[in-house]
Design brief:
Length: about 325
């Protein structure tokens, strides 16, 4: 008899997939197998449920759980618009969540970095679900230790370049810190969707939300690709890069952002770049409505996995005018 249900803990093959009830069964991201065994794994999906560095609304510690729940429909069919099953090519597991102690805040960043480094040391790529955006700093440190200075592609309403000081735990200062530490190469890096003010661009290419609306997603993709070149690209996607109409469930919403279709087109346009890691952060379920923020996040993370599958040899099967 064919396997039915609960593949998150019943599967024994990291490429296995079978039918599930979308409204039932054990939840994992895209119904992937829960395991800490990274032997032969291409990508580990990992949650970091931390939100103690937010400056406005809390709640994104619940983001990884919500994104997993919102991914159920994406596990049903072949990927759109790719037309393939990414898991026929790519071995992907759900690594569960980082274990962090918020009661000892000085340990949070080192613990995230150390746990990420242990995953990356096996040759496994990392797709991280946040959590607030501060977690990007230890993640960037762990990735740069493997790949060298990174080409950061950041989708965000905020540049996260505000004044910093040593030991600060703040989701609005860490990108400037990463640049000053040399783990992000600003000459290769781009921020997309920005619509708050910073006194300096820190050497980054900044494509503001009004610029993207005016010039188009195609122009944004071209600008990012030209700047990144062949450098290792880390995608840091703050869900508040989307307009609150498409992502109300976030901590610091700013009107005028990207539509969900623009964001999806943008991520798909990164195909062929040297993609080494991604985080998807700032989904705050208490402020969401009808899961639309979590759904957008799940689709964006799913499409990044499809880009990796395509790079590993999955062939697109176009249907209709794409």
């Amino acid at each position: 008899m064919a396997e039915k249900g609960d593949q998150a803990f019943r599967a024994r093959d990291n490429r296995a997939r079978w039918a599930e009830m979308t409204y039932g069964g054990a939840l994992s991201f895209l119904r992937r197998r829960y395991t800490r065994d990274l032997d032969g794994v291409d990508v580990a999906v990992w949650g970091v449920p931390y939100d103690a560095s937010v400056t406005y609304r809390p709640g994104c510690r619940l983001g990884p759980r919500a994104i997993r729940a919102a991914s159920v429909q994406l596990a049903e069919l072949r990927a759109f618009p790719f037309g393939f099953d990414p898991f026929e090519t790519l071995a992907v597991i759900d690594h569960g969540d980082a274990f962090i102690d918020p009661h000892h805040p000085e340990t949070v960043a080192p613990d995230i970095e150390a746990q990420a480094a242990a995953i990356l040391a096996t040759g496994t790529k990392l797709l991280t679900l946040g959590g607030d955006h501060f977690i990007a700093w230890p993640l960037l440190r762990a990735h740069a230790a493997v790949h060298g200075p990174l080409a950061l592609v950041q989708v965000d309403a905020h540049g996260d370049l505000w004044p910093d000081d040593p030991g600060r735990i703040d989701h609005g200062t860490m990108m400037g810190r990463a640049i000053r530490e040399g783990i992000v190469d600003p000459a290769r890096s781009t921020q997309v969707g920005i619509r708050t003010f910073h006194e300096s661009d820190e050497g980054l290419q900044i494509l503001s939300a009004p610029w993207v609306h005016r010039e188009g997603i195609g122009a944004a993709i071209a600008a990012v690709r030209e700047r990144a070149g062949g450098a290792p690209v880390y995608l840091s996607f703050d869900i508040d890069g989307l307009d609150p109409a498409f992502a109300p469930g976030t901590g610091t919403p700013v009107p005028g952002g990207l539509a969900s279709w623009q964001a999806l087109e943008f991520v798909r346009g990164l195909a062929g770049l040297n993609l080494v890691g991604m985080d998807l952060v700032e989904v705050s379920p208490p402020f969401d409505h009808a899961e639309i923020t979590a759904l957008a996040a799940a689709h964006l993370a799913h499409d990044w996995l499809c880009l990796l599958a395509e790079a590993a040899g999955a062939a697109r099967v176009p249907v209709g005018k794409l």
